[in-house]
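User: I'm new to structure prediction. If I give you an amino acid sequence, what do you actually give back? Let's try with this one:
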Amino acid sequence: MLDHPTGAGSEGDFRVDFDPRVRLEFHGSKISSNGGLLLFRELDEVLGLHDLAGQSLQDTRRGKNGVHSLVGLLRQSNFGRLAGYPDVNDAERLAHDPVMRQVVGGRAVDEWAASTSQMARFETDILTSAHNRAALADMPGQWIDALHDAQSPKWITLDMDSSVSPTHGDQEGTAWNGHFGCKCYHPLFVFNQFGDLERCALRKGNVHSADGWKEVMAPVIARYKKRDLMRFFRADAAFAIPELYEMLEAESYFYTIRLKGNAVLREAVSHLLKRPVGRPPNYVQRFYHDFEYRAASWAKARRVIAKVEWHPGDLFPRMGFVVTNLPMEPKWIIRFYNQRGTAEQHIKEGKYAINWTRLSCKRFRDNEVRLQLHALAYILGSFLKRADLPEEVADWSLTSIQSRLIKIGARVVRHARKITFQLAEVAVPRNIFGQILTAIRALKPPPRPT
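Assistant: Good question. You get back a string of structure tokens that encode the predicted 3D arrangement of the chain. For your 450 residues, that looks like this:
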């Protein structure tokens, strides 16, 4: 057997035929394709995010042989997902990645990050205890509170929506969902107007879209009760629930929630259902109607806004109804409600950038943990967009941030007293990288009064 493959200049190096000057070398533990993660590690440090997590989680390991701290394992789990590695099987190569080792900290800097078996035990054993699952569910809210301590918003708008996570095989809790046309889980999400994921919950595949809404919403409402700001809520017709209206009204939330049409509602807009007089124009004609309505299950009458649209070529009009307690003009209210579509975009970003539909464990509680870890990775990416970023990157989606900012090539050079990461200057020039770093440091909360 040859010691050197054909074309190799020396052991481990390769040459190519198209240009004899080119030599290929491999330095796995010195080169990384995830250089941008160092920015997010700085964001983590500025806001103290994983330190908060460490205060909430319980380490169930016995003995003193733990190589990596619980916080370090959580960092590896979350930053790995943010970089596009959604499975613990990826830990084997990430353990040698110099950027990941630096991000994890502790022993990983001078040795290796956690292996696949270590990460598997962390995610499917330590984190699946009842205490830690509850702590993980609360963690997005704690992280958002930490950011709001630095950047206090004047109002908060909450959007609630459900989604689909297709399943494969005989996974616990999976079921056929006729609406989505597949076997799946049916998670529930609450976002704010900044795109941050306030809270989420994994549910069985065959539950109603609004199932468990109270368990998800109540902790979010409780958190914002302590802050002096205006509060808004939006949701589609699946959440047209009298108990939800009453909760929102009691907590001083303004809301817009879509109503399914019925005979009484259609009768209220019957005067708008006749085709407008004259030649039909080549644009959409919109009409609004504002009226009081009380369903049989409601304790009182509420304001309903109707929108009727006549589209060119349509024989019948399209109509929609929104129940609200907002005092604004009908057109403004409908426009405000329509903005809830951004929640669907956030869900898509979570699917494509973080791959949070990858819930492939056998046990339901393991998949609950995976969804919460995906959520934390998503929040890390979302928080960067809250900083005062340079104009060149301010409008980047999470997918763009992942592919253009996180995926920066980096070479590590170690000296006795310092570690230097030499970053590729292609998608993100040096000056833009520096501006992003400055914007992250500006998020640091003011010191608490003693």
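You can read the tokens as a compact description of the fold. Here is one thing that stands out. The first strand starts at residue 14 and ends at 15.
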